[in-house]
Every structure is written in structure tokens, then in C-alpha cells.
Amino acid sequence: MKLFGFRRKPEWQHADAKRRLTAVESLQDPALKAALPELAQTDPDPTVRIAAISRIDDLAVLERRMRGEHDSAVAEAAKQRLIQRLCVPQVEESAALEALRQVHDEEVLSDVAQNAALGGLRRLALERSQRGNLKLQRCIHDPDPELRLWLLEQIDQADALQRIADAVRKKDKRLARAARDKLDALRIAAGDPTALETRAQAIAEAAGRLTRELPDDRDPQLAALQQEWQQLSRQVSAATQRRVQGALDTAELALRAARGDWSPPPRAEPTPAPAAPEPSSDKPVQALQDQLPNIEQSDFDQSLQALSAQLEALSAERGSADARIEALRRLLEQRRRQRNDWLKAQRQAAREAERESREQAAASTLNQVEQALRQGQAQAAQEAWQSIAKPGELSAALRRRWQTCQQQLAELAQAQRWASRQARQRLCEETAALQGSGLHPDAVASRVKELQAEWSKLDQIDGDQAPPSDAGISRRFRALCHQALSPAKAYFEKRRELRGERTQAIEQLLTESLSEAADSAALLQRQQALRDGLNQLRDAAPEKRNELAAQIRAQLDGIAARLKDQREQALLGKRKLLAKLKRDLGAADAEAGIRLAKAAQAEWKQLARGRRQDEDALWQELRELIDPLFDGLRQRQDADQAQRQQIQQAADGLLAELEALATAEPERLLHADSHVESLRQRWRELGRPEVNDGSETARGKRPAPSADLDERRFDRACEAVRRAQARQQQQRQLDQLEAICRAGDWLAERRPAAALREALASLDLPASARSRFEALAETAADSSNDAQTESQAPAELLAVRAELAAGLDSPPDDQALRRQEQMQRLARKLEGAAPLAASEEILDCLIELQCRPHLEASLRQGLNQRVRAAFAAAQAG
């Protein structure tokens, strides 16, 4: 140990900022690590504070530094360090949550919501963030499935739900299904006719599947469908009601037949109908029912009132009670209640939107205030502060930020008053330093004016807090200004003498005379001398400047009059040219007028110039004659060019949109036909601009029109879309074929039902195949069920059907089956049955083949290969 070493300060307390920076960056002393929070707050050098912040792991300290640091670079370093520590996996969750609850910076909240390793931190950041699209983004991309479901619960916008369902359709089926269900529920609750019709069709399709498949839980499924249909039946059209009710009745008959009950299903009637109306009397009621207004119509009340009046008139005309009229009355009342519910939902949504808008505006303004406070801009912070809403109208989090900003504003105002006192003291010291400084008297006077201007600026900034004029510091400043200007009095006296001499010289110039026969050169020389004297008046005595200026201007006016007479002759030729041009243009058409204007311009340049003012006037007169001609020509040219450019831009936009469609995702390609047809129609509607062949440009002949639209490029783009659709369809069918074969292999292995259902859920199967495979999964492990397939068609017949659909030859052993199948196809064709597409028919054969797990492995493999070959041939054809 060195002698007196114990008395030396550590390196991080050294007076040299560079040595402090080196110590903070490199030393591993425990004492330094303990002193890092204090260094980050109190060290006068920003670079040292940044270095200390980069080594701090305490989240609370980092949050306070980010919020309380006035230097923007240091505050940014604290922000980035806080984000880094919050996002690492090793962070302590409780401390991180506590620190994050104090953060109001949107950048920090957004980064933590996207990059934090802990799900709890991401959820808290999402709860506190005010960014509207952040929840939507994280609902799609967050790795935690439970957090994604929680975010979905916070989203109620229909377009956002649709976007989520489309984005996660393949990677998170549970979230996609929940988003679609919530979207459908919103649309159905709003009375969307399309959503109601779609849901009704889905109920009919589900009832049809129950009729065909008869699953084990068919009774609960049918009961659920019937209950849902009771709620929707009165909100859809009559045709849809008949279709869905028929499907449900058919399903109930099928279920009763499966139980051995062949009696027709009972129909629950609330009250017996009085009498069936005549067919002719049902038509007016049906017509009124078809006129039911949508709940979102602007004239809903008027339409419903008119419909009620028509219904009452029809009821009065019939006289007796009518069941259909009573049902329509109930339907009108139900539609009125739906309208009221929809209006309530709209008002609630408007209030929520207004509250959210107010919260967002307050948060944005608070961000501005906090930014201004960090940068020490008191005036900007105060201006932004005035526009913030009342604290009672803000949320708890924003109120806490409001209180923090209010406290910081008070602290900043106090610091500003202290700085103002220091600035006034500095102005007094600088004014006192002017005495004996050796500066030029003009420099002293200018500096005194500058200091007085700074003093006045401080008075404006301080406002009511500024010291009065009779205050001690104000009197001291005025006295110091007087003392600083006192030594310059001798200089100002000498300057007054010099100004008197300059005044005499200008008076001598004014006494000189000019002969009447002077030419233009002499007049111009005298004019220049007088102008120089006018410029030198700034050095003359101030009290005589106006008088001398008036005399100089009088002589200048006389010289100008004489120069005017001399220049009149020079302007006469141009006046004659203008008169001649006016006469010629009166009898000329547009094309001849252009030629005359060009000739007049060329002749004008050959004539001598007159006085500038007259020259400008005559030139303006010439422009008034020829400008309309050239303007009309340019307008016609610009209109033609603009029309060409507009058509070309529209064509380029259509081509770009079509080319982008060729590389779009598979979901868009499935529905690209209507889009392509729309683009094709818009392409046909593009026309060409009409060209006035009789006009000319300012430089000569009319330019040729632009080339025709690039039809070949458009056709190539359409063909690219069709090829992309074909590739996408072929790839999907190939994927489904592989999935069907794999499912058949699993069924043949007779796996347990639970494992088989789980494996089937991971495959992209057609709906028809999935339902059949799931039904077989329950009985796949039971070999006693193999006898159930004895009544089915031979397995070889399925391969023959596939080969027949693909146009391939069957083996000789299966020729009899092929002839039998050909006869059946001919019979179906004669009956008018629509044939299936070859690929779809082959897939159906493959599905049917996989539903026979009892086949021998070699036979099934051979049949699979034959069906695959048929499928490949169908796609190649």
C-alpha cells in the first residue's frame, strides 16, 4: 500500500470527466457498482451518466432516470437500458412488473409488449399501451396462445376480427375459430341479413350431415341446432325458413328411424290455428313480410310505420282474426326491439369511441409535456399543458401521469425563476464589463441595445413574475447602461461635425446647373451623380436629410422628364407594331394568329428599347394580345397530355394490381376469378384521349398520340393468375391426397381411437373425408366390425372408377367391373345426373378406399397406387 494512498479519491470521483468515464466503463470495484445509481443521477457530464446507466440493472432506478433526466441523450440511454432489462428472460418478474406499472412511454410499452420473454410483462404492457393496433398485432404474432385468446377478448371491431381469423387460419385454428365465432356473433347480433342467411345455411348443412352420418352424439347436436334455429327463424326470408326447417325435419326423421321409431316427428303447436287462409290471402301477407326494413336503415321508423299501417288496413279488410297477420305483427314488434337494441349499441360504441379519443388525445398531450419537460422547454410544456382535459375525465393511469407532470412543471417553473434571476445578474455584469473594454463606441452602443433587448425578453418570459421597474436590480441595470455610454460622448460629437461637412458637399452638388441642349449621356451622368448624393444622405445631418432629399428628387424628376421626351421616339415604332398586330389578329383564325404572334415577337426584338416603364407597358400590351393564343394552345396540349397520362396511370395500376394478384396468398387466389373479371372490365373501359389535329404546339407540329394499351401484358398477367390458381388447386389436391392416404394407413394400423382422432386432427382433410374418418376412428381398433363392409362395393371397383374418370385402362382382371361401371355411368347420364370433375371423383374413390381398413396391406397398397396414378393422369390432362 502506497503512503497516503488512503487519502486519494476513487477514479469515478476524479475531476476529469474522461477519467471518470474510463473508470465507470471498465472498473469492477464493488464500491463503484454501489455508486452507479448516484453517478447516473448527479454526475455533471452526460457521457459519464450514460456509461453508469449502461451498467445498472435496477429497473426502478432506470425508470426514474428515464422519466426525470433533462438531457435527452441520457434519457434515451436509460430508456434503451430499461427496455433491454425488461426483455431478458432472467429478469425478476415481480420487480419488472412493478417498474413497468410506472412507465408511461409508449415506445417502452410497445417494445416490451413485442419482445419481453415473460408473458406477464407482455400482458401488462399491452394493458397499459394506448396504441390501437398493437393489440391486434400481438393477437396475431404473440407466442403465448392464452395471451392471444385474452387479446381477442379485448377486440370488438369486425374488421380486426376478420383480419385475425385470416392471419392465423393455418397456424392457430383455435384462435381463428374463436375470432370467426365472435365475428359471426357480432354480425348476427347487429341483424346483418347476410350473416343471418349464412348461419341459417350452416344450420341446414349441419342437419344434412347429421342425416347422412348419424354420429353417436346426434341427438344433442340436433337439439342444439333446433334451439338455435328457434332464435333465428323469424329473422330470415321465408324461402330460407322452409329450406332450414325441411332439413331439420329430415334429420329428425333419420334419427328416429335409426332408433327404430318410424312414426313422423311431432310438431309442437302453441295454439291451434283457427283456419288455413286461402292461397290468395297469403300473398299480401308475404309481400308485407318481404318489405320488412333492415335495422340499419336510416328511414327504419318511417318504413316500419308505413308497414304497420298497411298491415292494419289488411287486417281490417279481412275482418276476422288471421294467424299470419298476428305472426307478422309479432315479427314487426321483434324487429322494432332489434332496432332499439342496435341503436343502444351504436350510442354505446360512440361513447366508448369518444372516451377512447379523449384518452388518446390526453395521452398524446402528456407525451408532449413529458418530452418538453425532459428537454427543459418550459414554454412548450406549459402550452401543451393548457390543452389537457380535466383530471376527473381521465383514467387512473393518466391521472397519475397528470399529477407527475404538474409537479414537474412546478419544479421547472421554480428552476426557470432561478435561471431568470441568474440571467439578469449576468446582464448587469456584462453591462458593467463594457466600461473600459476598449470597444468602438458604436459597438458599445449596439451592445447596450442588445442587452436591453435581452432584458425586455426576460420580462416577457417571466410575465407577472418579472421585477418592477423600480426594483433594485432594474435600477442597477439602467445605471450601468448610462455609465457604459458616457465615454462615447466625444466620439458622437466628432461624428456630428463630419455630418455637417457632408451636408455642405450635397448642397454644393444641388447648385450646379445643366444646359438645355444636354444629350442623353449627360442627362444620365447627372442623374447618376444625384442618385449617389441621395445615397450619401445617411452621412448628412439628420435634421436636413428630408429637405435635401426633396431637392434631389425634384432635380431627378426634371431629368426624368427630359429623358422621357427623348425615349418617346424609340417607343413609337413599337406602338405602330402593336397597332398593325391588332388589325391582323382581328381577321385571323387560331392557326394564323399563332403565326402572326411569332412574327411580331421576332420583329419586336429588332426594335430599340425605350424607357423601362414604357417598355414594360408596351410589352405587357403585346403579351395581352399574344398570350391568349399561346395559352389556348397550351391548354389544349395539356388537356390531351393529362388525359393520356391519366389513362396510362390507370392502365399501369390495373396491370400492377393484376400482377400482384398472381403472387398473392392462396386464400386470395381461391376467389380471384371475380377480381380478374372486374379488372378486365375496367381495362375495357379505358379509352383514348381525343386529339384536335388542327392545333399546333408553340414549337411546331402537333405531337403524335401515345401508343395503345399493352394488351399483351394484360393477357400475360391474366394468364399468370390462372396458372397460379391452377398450381394452387393442384397442390391443395395433392396435399389432400397425401393426407387421405396417411389417414388410411393409420386406420389400417388399428390405432386406439383417442390417438387416431388426435392424429386425424393434424391433417388437412376434406370435410367429407374428415367426418368419415372420425366416425371410423371409434371402431377402427375393433376387428369385429370388418364384416360391416361386406355389403359395400368391391374395393377393386373404386380403382376402376378412378381409372375410368382419368381415362386410364384397367387391368384385364377388372374389365368386367369396368364395363359394369360404364353401364352405371351411362344410366346416370341418361337420368340427367351432373357428372363430377375427374379429380373430385378420384378423391372420393380414394376416401372410400381408405374407409376399408380390413383390406390386406398388399391389396390396399396396389389399389392406392392405381388411384394415385389415375389422379396424376387427371391433373396432367
Automatic annotation (TrEMBL):
Species for this entry: Pseudomarimonas arenosa
Superkingdom of the source species: Bacteria
Bias (Pro residues) ranges: 263-277
Bias kind Basic and acidic residues: ranges: 348-359, 687-699
Region (Disordered) residue spans: 258-286, 348-367, 687-709
Protein name: DUF349 domain-containing protein
A Pfam family it matches: DUF349
